[in-house]
Amino acid sequence: MSNTLYWMVTIIDRNQSRKFLSFYRDYGISVTLNTLGRGTAASSVLNYFSLEATQKAVLCAVVTDTVWCRVKKGLETTMQIDIPGTGIAFVVPVSSIGGKRQLQFLTNGQEFTKGEESVLKDTKHELLVVANQGYTETIMEAARRGKAAGGTVLHAKGTGMEGAEKFLGVSLAAEKELVLIVVRHEQKNDVMTAIMEDAGLESRAKAVVFSLPVTSTAGLRLTDLTADTE
Questions:
Q1: Which of 5, 7, 40, 148 could form a disulfide with 143 if both were Cys (CB 3.0 to 4.6 A apart)?
Q2: Could you report the per-residue pLDDT of 43-56, keeping only the tens digit for each?
Q3: Pairwise CA distance, residues 7 & 56, whole Å
Q4: Which helix (H) or strand (E) holds 139?
Q5: 148-165 pLDDT, tens per residue?
């Protein structure tokens, strides 16, 4: 039985997204977010090979350690992701999820036994990931009440929405705003609790929130010094 969760991120050419979504469905993985990106190869290289800038799809899902081991092998053998230019997939450990129903929704039937929170040793910060639609200000007001400094908003499409009513008891809009908030580890519970109270499943926002451990940061020194003096 799995007791570790990961946030799996897959970055591929945009025209391959349907193929990869179908592949993940075969493994019982519900890709919860699908957003767009752009390749960053130098223009001189693209011009030399008469290529256009590559448009990317970014697929995000929560998987258990057992599922990741199986799907990783499939990515290499079936999808041949190791061939240069095909794409990349990686996982980041999830330290906590804001509520049992949200856990069921994000894991979508994967076998998982919740144990102690998995936080990497000496982790001082955490990344909160909040998926919602149209309630970013509500979320940020709640986060600031928990002493969070600020956040970043990304636009994405939810692709696993058919499971929302099964696990959450609500229907969710396909279009999503992804709010990323970095907080000190000791602030995490207060911020997540505030977000769930003001923008959780019992509210109109119907936001889903989980956290990822951050192993190192730059640019947060003044924020940390301010928190230490309070």
A1: 148
A2: 554 454 444 556 78
A3: 19
A4: helix 136-145
A5: 888 888 887 766 555 555
Spatial CA neighbour of 29 closest among 56, 84, 69: 69
Residue 57 contacts residue 36 (beta carbons within 8 Å):
yes
Q: Of 59, 49, 74, 62, nearest to 14 (Cα)?
A: 59
Give the closest residue to 90 by CA, choosing from 55, 126, 59.
59
Query: Which has more pLDDT, 149 or 41?
Result: 149
CA dihedral for 10, 140, 98, 202, sign (positive or negative): negative
Neighbouring residues of 158: CB distance < 8 A, sequence distance ≥ 6? 32, 33, 34, 131, 172, 173, 174, 175, 176
Q: Please tell me the distance from the alpha carbon of residue 108 to that of residue 127, in angstroms, as a whole number.
A: 22
Residues in the chain: 230
